[in-house]
Design brief:
The chain is of the alpha+beta class. Helix content is about 50%, strand content about 20%. It folds into three domains: about 120 residues, Elongation Factor Tu (Ef-tu), domain 3 (Beta Barrel); about 60 residues, RNA polymerase II/Efflux pump adaptor protein, barrel-sandwich hybrid domain (OB fold (Dihydrolipoamide Acetyltransferase, E2P), Beta Barrel); about 140 residues, Helix Hairpins, CATH 1.10.287. α2 packs antiparallel against α4.
Length: about 375
Amino acid sequence: MNQLIETSNSNNSNDLSDNNRNKRKKLFSLLAATVIVAGGAGWAYWGLVASRYVSTDNAYTAVESAQVTPSVAGTIAEVRVTDSHGVKKGDVLVVIDPTDARLALAQAEADLGRAIRRVRSYEANDRGLGAQVAARGEEEKRLVAQLSSAQADFDRANIDLKRREALAPSGSVSGDELTRAQNAYTSAEANLKAAKAAVAQAAASSNATLGAKEANAALIVDTALDANPEVALARAKRDQAAVDFERTIIRSPVDGIVAKRQVQLGQRVDPGTPLLSVVPVQNIHVNANFKEGQLKEVRPGQMVELVCDLYGNDVVFHGVVEGFDGGTGAAFALIPAQNATGNWIKVVQRLPVRVRLDPTELYAHPLRVGLSMTAKVDLRSKS
């Protein structure tokens, strides 16, 4: 009886051992199948989905803000905007007291009128000097004729004197007649010298008048009144004064939102003093800072999906890769890394990628500069 019981217990133990082995085999088979399925699913997900995208949460909104500065010096008379104020291109932002600019414009206009009158006087002088040159020429001709007459008188007096001197020893000529001949010779000689001096003086005067005419003509030659350099210079100064007067009213260069206002009423400002900035929020883009290892297949024109922390996952923005910055953030840092000296530790670098946003979506869900974004680039897409 005991032997039968022992045999029965032995058989039961063998059955339990077989059952345990079968269960373990099933569990291992199930685990292996699970691993295979999970690996296959992971491989399929990577091949079909994950390998198609690269993403980063190191992305921020940015825009090229317009810094408003004055072009003329003056005292601030009006400030018409505050921070967060929306403005349109051409809206008046700041007004500088125009008194100084108005006076400068009036002076420039007076200088222009004076220059026009001065040039007109040059033209009148040119006509007057031309007449003087002609008169001097005629005067010189008259004096030359007088010189010829004086020369003839001198020659005749000289001949008469020589004849009488030749006849004087024979007594054919009286002393009184000889004296008159000598006096006539002396007078004719003096007249000849005076005529030569007059001709020389007339020639010098004619040359002086001609030189004055040429000097005056150099101020107006080959130019009309409006094109005269003096008038053109005065007009340019007048135009500059007019522009400076207009620049006392400072207008917005773009549509946008006012930010970083620093100007105050009554403040004295100089050209280039920062007054405020206008942020064209309608032109906001995203700088997505991808790791260098993620950029192998990123190209301009690829589509990008973006999520902003401001709106959360409920709002998805769509954009396009526009291009890449010229260097990494570390390359343009205030104190760039000196990797060629000292101990060196390799650090993965990030390169900013510029993403253009859809204007329609941006209008529906406005953004501001500096907001955090998550960007995902579709590597197989092309806009």
